[in-house]
Amino acid sequence: MKRLRSLWLLLLLVAMVTVGCGQEDVVSDNYENDETSGTVAEETSEETAEETAEETVAQPVVKENEFLTEYPFTFTDKFGNEVTIEEEPQNLVSFAPEITETIFAMGIGDKLIGRSTYCDYPAEAAEVPDLGTLFELNLEAIIEKEPDLVFLSSMVSEDQYKTLVDSGLTVFTVDYDDKLVGTMDQIQLIGDALNRVDQANAINGRIQDAIDDLTAKQADRDEVSMYFVVSAGEYTSTATGDTFMHDIIQTVGARNVAEEGTYWMYTVEQLVEDDPDVMLCSNRYDMKATIETLEGYKDLRAVTEGHLYEVDENIFFRQGPRVVEAMYVLEAILFHAQ
Fold first, then answer.
1. Of 202, 34, 214, which is closest to residue 102 (Cα–Cα)?
2. What would the pLDDT profile of 54-70 be if each residue is shown by its tens digit?
3. How far is CA 189 from the centre of its chain?
């Protein structure tokens, strides 16, 4: 397995989840196709999870735009460059799974003519031509398709970005944000760029309603401490206080024991000292089973008492419309499953 060799690669754990045991690491690709969505550990109430999904992940109604974008539309991208979109884009390429999900949620998935391998939700995305991974873009194929707008993820290199721009394409890049409000700002910007302002408002309205609902419930709940296992073993990583996932944890009303950590970095020694009430991990690559036998983890209270839960990591790591589902799945685990 590939080993993490520098600090910046820890940030890629937003896209790749690694579980290590002894000298071996089990690598979980956060964007790999998976048949499960919003999966909670079997200890979690199945009925609660189903009701949550029905109530919180319905797609916004697509309607005639009440608010129209005025073109040319100009914004500043991740690299600090001013980008101008001359007219409403009709043909799109997306290399950001969260943006692909947003495009479909806005009801315009049929405008996509290319995507990344990891843009796997909703199921209809599989019908869009695959033009490479997040890190190995098929630049020639992208350029050949002549899209009106190319969306790139926060992980794209500036060299790849420059190649596409120099070819004459209009490129939309965004950066990772550590707050829910940043996700809403990004969705709004996508709506502005694509002339889908009212659809963006509808999606953000659902997110804000969930935030308001969960915030209001906090006063009536006892404190629950938790830890989200991003990687374990030789390379230990979690949702630290400077991450978007930490904001989700706070919104739901739990205490993130790794709040003082930074850059997704935490040590097993710190975790053992914290001994959280609840732990979450990916539902892939037997991560839970590995953690249950891993030194430094297997004796934690959350593991021995059956409060280590598996979840669909994509709803937590992707800053798109399904953050609503992530919040309510987390609530179900923390406050209804114990």
1. 202
2. 454 444 444 455 678 99
3. 17
- What is the distance between the alpha carbons of residues 259 and 270, in angstroms, rounded to a whole number? 11
Q: Which of 5-9, 24-28, 220-224 has the highest mean pLDDT?
A: 220-224
**Intra-chain end-to-end CA distance of the chain, in Å:** 36
Give the distance, in angstroms, between the CA of residue 254 and the centroid of all CA atoms in the same chain.
Answer: 19
* Nearest of 336, 250, 248, 257 to residue 300 by alpha carbon: 257
At residue 336, the pLDDT reads 83
Per-position DSSP letters for 170-191, written without gaps between them: -EEE----SSHHHHHHHHHHHH
By the 10 Å C-beta count (0-12 exposed, 13-18 middle, 19+ buried), 78 is classed as: middle
- Rounded CA-CA distance 280/256 in Å is 11
* Phi-psi sector, 253: left (phi>0), alpha (psi -120 to 50), beta: left
Residue 172, beta-bridge partner list:
151
pLDDT tier at 176, thresholds 50, 70, 90: confident
User: Is 37 strand, coil or helix?
Assistant: coil
How would you classify residue 204: left for phi > 0, otherwise alpha for psi between -120 and 50, otherwise beta?
A: alpha
294 Cβ partners below 8 Å, 6+ apart? Answer: 21, 232, 233
Alpha helices in the chain (DSSP H): 46-56, 97-105, 139-145, 158-166, 180-193, 197-217, 244-252, 268-274, 287-291, 301-304, 313-317, 323-336
Identify whether the C-beta of residue 129 lies closer than 8 Å to the C-beta of residue 216: no
Residue 220 has pLDDT above 90, yes or no: no
Residue 93 confidence (pLDDT): 98
